[in-house]
C-alpha cells in the first residue's frame, strides 16, 4: 500500500523543528516525483489550524513588528528575517493546499509540491544568509498574516488561489525589485543574489495560483475578472497596496483588466498592513 501524499503533507505542515520540516519536504517531494505516493488517504482529514513553527519564534500583530532602517546591520537582518518568515510560511501554505483540497487533477498536486520544494530552498538560502550575519530564523518577532488568510480561505480552493498567491504572495513581485535596488546601494550582493532567485521563482508560483484560480472559475462558469474584483472587495475592503509591477504580474497570469482594477483600489504603502513585507 502506497503512502498518501495527503498524510505526508500533514506531517510537513505540523512539523515544528526547522530541520524536520525541511527534511520532510525534501522526502515528500522526492517520493511524489518518483510516483511512490497515492492520492488516497485511509485517515480522516486532520483540521490543522496552526502549522508547526520554531518554539522560539514570537508571533505578534503586524503593527507590532519592529521597523528598522535598511542602512544598518540590524535593519538588514530584520529585512532578511521578514522575508525568511514569508518563505517559511509559504512552505506551510503549499502543503496546506495539498492537504486541504482533495479530488483535484494530479497536476494540481504536481504544482504545489514544486512550490513547497522551491519555497524550502528559498528559506534555506535566507537562513544561511542570516547565520552569516550571526542570527537565525526565530530570533526576531514576526506576524501570521499569510497563515491568517489561509484560514479565511480554507473552505474554497477558488478563494484560496485568488487571494493567497494572487494578492498576498503577488505583493512580493511588486516590492522585491525596489528592495534589490536599495540593497545594491549598500553593496549587499549576497542578499541581492538570493532575492533575484526568489523573484524569478515567485513569478512561477503566482502563475500557478493564477492557473488554478482560472481553472476553478471555468469549472464553475464564473467570470474570473469579475470574481477577482468581488473577492478583493470582500476580503480587503477594496484597498490594495501599490504600486504594481505590471510586467511581473502579467507574466504571473494577471490580465490588464485585473491590473487596472487593482490600480483603482491602490492605497499608499504607509496606510497598508499588507502582510508580505
Low-confidence stretches: 270-277
In the CATH scheme, the class would be Mainly Alpha
Mean pLDDT equals 92
Overall geometry comes to globular
Describe the protein.
This protein is mainly alpha-helical and 277 residues long. It has one domain: Ferritin, core subunit, four-helix bundle (Ferritin). The chain has helices at residues 5-14, 18-33, 73-100, 106-132, 145-152, 157-169, 171-185, 189-219, 224-236, 246-251, 256-264, and strands at 3-4, 37-38, 240-241, 266-267. Helix 1 packs antiparallel against helix 2, helix 2 runs antiparallel to helix 4 and helix 6 packs across helix 9 (224-236). It is globular. Residues 270-277 have low confidence and may be disordered.
Helix/strand layout:
Elements: E1 3-4, H1 5-14, H2 18-33, E2 37-38, H3 73-100, H4 106-132, H5 145-152, H6 157-169, H7 171-185, H8 189-219, H9 224-236, E3 240-241, H10 246-251, H11 256-264, E4 266-267
Parallel strand pairs: 1-2, 3-4
Helix pairs in contact: 1-2, 1-3, 2-4, 3-4, 4-8, 5-6, 6-8, 6-9, 7-8
Concise overview:
The chain has 11 helices and 4 strands; from the N terminus they run βααβαααααααβααβ.
Which properties best describe this structure?
single chain, 277 residues, mainly alpha, Ferritin, two-stranded parallel sheet, 11 helices, 4 strands
